[in-house]
Write a sequence for this structure.
């Protein structure tokens, strides 16, 4: 029993130490346990002194099994193979470092430094700009995407985090009017809660789409985006969508919001969106069809296509980013918003798919099964390793008896 408890302890400690990273971003990513893997160094050193390197290796394998079991269940999908292999390599190096510390401290410290480097390397995952010419993206929006609210002059110019991500895949060009020359040269259009557009501008957007353009429209029935500007200030983004005439021309109607709360919405393909006071679309013609319970609508118009999203708050960094200073680091994302928006606009993929904590029920089930897996593994190890040890002792005693005889 004592052997089983000692073999199970590293797995339970590792699982608990990785929880803060999970709760901070909601990402069920094996590499979220990379830093926590350092606890295997002292644990392996203690097990090596007590019983030997085989026990330390067995405990490390059990810890890896527990984490991967937890990630699989809490996200409802198999862990990313590359991330799982990277965590396995980090944990193996940590176990090797701890096992060597009692007998060869210099080697143990050297391998421990290697483990630290292995932990640092996956953390460098970052969205890199694509090489070569990028598609031209026109952006028409009343949201503070290219300036800071309440400031003037050069100090007001600043890209919102979502714009910083889009610039890695597109040549982003903010436009004040759909009648400008930049609109004609654009390969894609992001129309995000714009201010009131003239009839000629709405007609220009419709014509551009039907000639082969690709547009993403964020239309919000009740914008929740925080603003430092007073109510009535013309610089504030519209509180409700002003695109009703254009949507009606495309046979779509934006419905009122059903809730004023934030909601984590999982799409059919497993991606996560965090929305706020979102609604849906009602389609009144054959050109469009709805998806995700009306939250998204896609329209085929002439040679072009439009993706409609019934929420503009989705691109507010407070709803998809844990650290506003690190929008290009996917491990800081709290939703799949950057990748989804880039894909809707026709850009290249940003990062590997992420696994997400789905609900409290999955969290409880994942903890339960991970603990059971760790206990089973530890019990199996205590039986096999102790039997091997007793066999070795019995064999040595038998040889001693023969020599005396």
């Amino acid at each position: 029993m004592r052997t089983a408890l000692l073999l199970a302890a590293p797995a339970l400690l590792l699982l608990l130490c990785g929880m803060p990273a999970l709760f901070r971003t909601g990402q069920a990513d094996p590499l979220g346990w990379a830093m926590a893997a350092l606890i295997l160094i002292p644990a392996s050193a203690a097990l090596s002194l007590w019983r030997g390197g085989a026990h330390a290796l067995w405990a490390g394998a059990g810890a890896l099994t527990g984490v991967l079991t937890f990630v699989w269940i809490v996200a409802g999908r198999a862990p990313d193979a590359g991330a799982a292999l990277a965590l396995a390599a980090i944990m193996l190096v940590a176990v090797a470092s701890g096992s060597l510390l009692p007998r060869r401290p210099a080697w143990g410290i050297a391998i421990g430094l290697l483990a630290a480097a292995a932990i640092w390397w996956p953390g460098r995952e970052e969205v890199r700009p694509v090489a070569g010419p990028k598609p031209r993206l026109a952006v028409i929006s009343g949201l503070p995407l290219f300036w800071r609210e309440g400031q003037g002059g050069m100090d007001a110019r600043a890209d919102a985090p979502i714009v910083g991500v889009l610039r890695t895949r597109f040549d982003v060009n903010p436009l004040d009017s759909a009648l400008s020359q930049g609109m004609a040269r654009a390969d894609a259009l992001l129309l995000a809660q714009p201010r009131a557009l003239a009839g000629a501008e709405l007609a220009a957007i419709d014509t551009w789409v039907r000639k082969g353009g690709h547009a993403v429209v964020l239309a919000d029935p009740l914008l929740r985006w925080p603003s430092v500007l007073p109510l009535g200030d013309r610089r504030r983004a519209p509180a409700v969508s002003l695109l009703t005439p254009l949507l009606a021309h495309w046979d779509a109607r934006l419905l009122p919001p059903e809730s004023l709360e934030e909601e984590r919405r999982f799409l059919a393909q497993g991606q996560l969106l965090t929305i706020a006071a979102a609604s849906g679309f009602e389609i009144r013609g054959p050109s469009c069809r709805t998806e995700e319970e009306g939250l998204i609508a896609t329209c085929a118009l002439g040679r072009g296509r439009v993706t409609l999203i019934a929420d503009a708050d989705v691109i507010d960094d407070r709803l998809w980013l844990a650290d506003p200073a690190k929008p290009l680091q996917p491990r800081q994302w709290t939703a799949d918003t950057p990748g989804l928006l880039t894909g809707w606009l026709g850009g290249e993929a940003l990062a590997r798919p992420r696994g997400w904590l789905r609900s409290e029920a999955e969290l409880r089930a994942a903890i339960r099964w991970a603990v059971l897996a760790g206990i089973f593994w530890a019990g199996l190890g205590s039986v096999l390793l102790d039997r091997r040890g007793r066999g070795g002792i019995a064999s040595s005693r038998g040889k001693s008896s023969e020599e005396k005889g």
Summary: Residues 360-404 form the longest helix (45 residues).
